[in-house]
Specification:
The protein has 419 residues and is of the alpha+beta class. Helix content is 21%, strand content 24%. Strand 17 (334-336) and strand 18 form a beta hairpin.
């Protein structure tokens, strides 16, 4: 099913806005459910370094993959994500641990764009992934290593699924606005390269569609495919952008990727934000643990040792949740080996926040606590001691640091999840 370019400009790209055109881009987003912001990252070197990082990751997932050898891009080597093998996604793994993905996530322009769209300043980033569509036509394959000769072949089996159209927001569970999604274009796209497509303006019909189709198509899953034969599919428009541009869309918008029919790679980084929920201690702790865990795959984690670790800016720490203020009132909620302990999801670990530099004391003690992570609190005269403890099984010895602080400085703390 052919689809045309949405709102083409004089160069054939989809209409886009500069980052400074705040009111215009917001109006366009509210009308059509998506918007393109051009040059949100202007640094060519940042884009190239990101692409190099992706190739390095591919080499971790399968050491046989070589950027300069197209024979290693074959399906038997390529790490296609299970369950979404037709979408152009790289194998399911967290890229939370590496440098350039964080340079992009914490880029002030990208964070500001989501603040504009969501009309909220306090945001948390979601740990999304990279996407790469392989070329499928006119690919150069080495024929003779000695003379450097090549032959050109097509690889139709490398194409992603045509006309893939779906929602990541279940229409029957969440019929109203709940959030947005986004991607950073790391390569130029056109009708041949593959890329993002959607049904502009459908956000205004989303709720009614869920009512009209409840009897025949209602399901409980998070990802919902638009039914084959649905008239919505006749309204698909391709979104063509230049590298360095950013596409953000309402999750009620039917969207997907169209296949790559060119000799070039189509490369993106998916980046999404949500309103911060600093009163949800469980989610905050889970987010911070995920950041420190490095990746979801222990196999990949071992092989990431040579990768530069992310260096978070103050803004980066904020969008992770590391600078979220927690209420650390020290009132007993459980008892642990004679010490009073805070709730498991309210542990505090940044001693610098509490330490009274004029009279604070630091000492080391041994302690055994059974359970999970706690900020163990105890009081002696006018002093309160906080002991961070990584709980162990019965009979194991665990060491922890005790920081003595003034009672006047414990109204709140910053959670850095450093245990």
């Amino acid at each position: 099913m052919a689809s045309s370019t949405a709102f083409p400009d004089s160069n054939g790209y989809t209409k886009s806005f500069s980052f400074e055109e705040t009111s215009e881009l917001l109006k366009f987003f509210e009308e059509y459910g998506f918007v393109v912001v051009r040059n949100i990252i202007e640094s060519k070197s940042q884009i190239e370094e990101t692409i190099d990082e992706i190739w390095s990751l591919l080499g971790v997932l399968n050491p046989k993959i070589d950027k300069n050898d197209s024979s290693t891009w074959d399906n038997k080597y390529w790490p296609i994500q299970l369950g979404l093998k037709d979408g152009g996604f790289i194998s399911h793994m967290s890229d939370v641990a590496i440098k350039m993905c964080w340079e992009n996530r914490q880029h002030p322009n990208i964070v500001r764009l989501f603040q504009i769209i969501l009309k909220q300043d306090d945001l948390w980033v979601r740990y999304d992934r990279y996407g790469m569509m392989r070329p499928t036509k006119g690919i150069a394959f080495k024929q003779n290593d000695n003379d450097g000769s090549v032959i050109f072949e097509d690889k139709s089996e490398w194409r992603s699924k045509p006309n893939w159209l779906h929602w990541d927001q279940n229409p029957w569970r969440y019929p109203d606005f709940i959030g947005v999604q986004g991607l950073l274009a790391l390569s130029d796209t056109n009708p041949n390269t593959g890329g993002f497509h959607c049904v502009p303006g459908f956000t205004h019909r989303f709720k009614q569609w869920s009512i009209d189709n409840e009897k025949e198509h209602k399901c409980r899953g998070g990802l919902v495919n638009v039914p084959e034969g649905d008239p919505i599919r006749n309204e698909i428009k391709q979104i063509h952008v230049q590298k360095g541009s950013f596409i953000v869309w309402d999750s009620r918008l039917p969207h997907g990727n169209f296949p790559n029919e060119s000799d070039q790679f189509r490369i993106v980084q998916y980046i999404t934000f949500q309103p911060a929920k600093e009163d949800d201690k469980r989610e905050l702790t889970s987010r911070i643990d995920a950041f420190h865990m490095r990746t979801l795959s222990s196999k990949v984690d071992e092989q990431l040792d040579g990768f530069p670790e992310p260096q978070l800016t103050e803004l980066g720490e904020k969008i992770v949740g590391l600078r979220s203020t927690l209420n650390c009132i020290i009132s007993p909620s459980t008892s642990c080996d004679g010490y009073n302990a805070l709730n498991i999801y309210e542990y505090c670990t940044d001693f610098r926040t509490f330490l009274d530099s004029s009279s604070g004391l630091i000492s080391t003690v041994d302690n055994i606590i059974i359970g999970s992570k706690f900020c163990v609190a105890f009081q002696s005269n006018s002093w309160i001691g906080l002991r961070t403890v990584k709980c162990v099984t019965s009979g194991d010895a665990g060491a922890s640091n005790t920081t003595t602080i003034s009672t006047t400085t414990v109204a709140s703390c910053y959670n850095s999840a450093a245990i």
